[in-house]
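User: Can you predict the 3D structure for this chain?
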Amino acid sequence: MALTQDQRALVETILRTLREEPALLEELRRLLVPEIVVFLPDLKVIAERQTAIEERLTRELSAVWDAINALRQEVAGLRTEVREVAERQERMEKRLEQIEQRQDRMEQRLDRMEQKQDRMEQRQDRMEQRQDKMEQRLHRIETDVGQLKGKVQEITYRTNFLDYFGFWVLSAEEPHRRLWDRIDEALNRNLITLEELDELRDADLRWLGVLRRGRFAGQEVLIVAEFSWTVHPEDVERALKRTEIARKIGFWAVPLVAGVEWESPELKADALAKGIICVDNGRVEPLDWDEVLARWKT
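Assistant: Here is the predicted structure, written as structure tokens:
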């Protein structure tokens, strides 16, 4: 196999070094040639050995160069792979940069959405506050209207008491003097408290009348009435409470609750069961008062 120019240059360099350094040449001979041959005077044998050594060196150097060339090819392949990896990494970095830019835009959009939501929530809070104020105002108006309607009911029944209840009551009056005489006596005897006095005075109507018909005809009874446009449970409770106070001061008292409408049929049924005379838009229940009167006379 012919040597390449680089191989030939390497061989010449090795041979020149061996010629210039006898010690290295002797060491090489010792390693490659048996000691007994060294001392043979036959120069032909030595020459053959030297030729064999040179051929062996040439083959080994050729193998080294083959390995170097293979290594160069591998390095070139690695360089290609490294370049491809670098290019791929560059593409990935560009893609990551694009993703980051997109993420930044999304975050900015999200910030704008959050700011818009904050403004909407603030606006909603203002609207809710305004609605609360309107509801409070409406509640006050409804309360005022309810009180006015109740007052109208009170005036209507007070003015036309016998028109509504003349079927049951022969005559009637507001017992101011007699009521206060009984109240003074009850206070002196500690039968009622000042708080109960205020409660009784707050009754919408206290009407003292003589019964026209039934078992108790001709007897006097105090009707303690509560009037409301719409009757609620508290109206019923007030009538019961104030009637009990009137009984404490010595009156035969009966509760009456009247309204244009009742909150529910169940409320009116419960009031009737408790012995209350109920008026629903001018209609009086029960028609026969004897059972109610007997209940409150005891």
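Residues 160-297 form one domain. The longest strand covers residues 220-231.
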